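Give me the fold.
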Amino acid sequence: MSDRTTVRQVSTPPPARHPYLDHPHPLAIAHRGGAGDYPENTLDAFAAAVALGYRYLETDVHLTADGVLVAFHDASLDRVTDRTGNISDLQWSQVRTAQVLGADGSTGRISTLEEILDAFPAARFNIDPKSDAATDPLADVLTRSGATSRVCVGAFSDRRLARLRTRLGAQLCTGLGPKGVARLRAASLGLPVGRPDGDCVQVPVRAGRIRIVDRRLVDTAHRFGLEVQVWTIDEPGEMHELLDLGVDAIMTDRPGVLRDVLVQRGLWVD
């Protein structure tokens, strides 16, 4: 009899899908409500996406000087409104008077996150806290509004994501931070890297000249039980290419375009 002991490799099954992601896939996500068609991150943009049948909406949040969490992408008002100034330096009474300008000349107003969550109670939101200062107020708003279970938080900060996971626990769906994305990419290249924390990976197709979203990354993410959500995709050809790769969600500034692609492929769910 051999003295050699056979060691059986036991693989850990991937975690169950978070309830936030429990919807027929692929997910269609209106980026900033549909920034290519309406003034971005406004109630009008979100309402138009919902009218098209979108159940998933993406937005960003900043904190005003007096502690109000607003749905807005940039740190300042300069790029897309008729006003100027950093949101963190302005009172809500000043920010609320700004008019968000759409590409077609239309306008809309800036809203608080709570207004948007209240306006679309059946929608699920992907939210990006754009500063450390916005992190705890975001946790407070989600708790106060009872919206934690219908929100996924993605951020370019591992620290913010860790803080929100600590504050809100497993009820909150989260994406991977920069370190998590790097670990996933390393694992896709065959390096012995464990599963990063989070429920999904939200990435662009490329970072400069480097291709991020390819078959290896998608397959590795799925092996870890992570969904792959890609932003921001507005061209039908690229949408088809990514769907052929098996991505789980596409974020777009052109909700009507993505809807048409999914209808064409028999993947749109009303």
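The longest helix spans residues 135-145.
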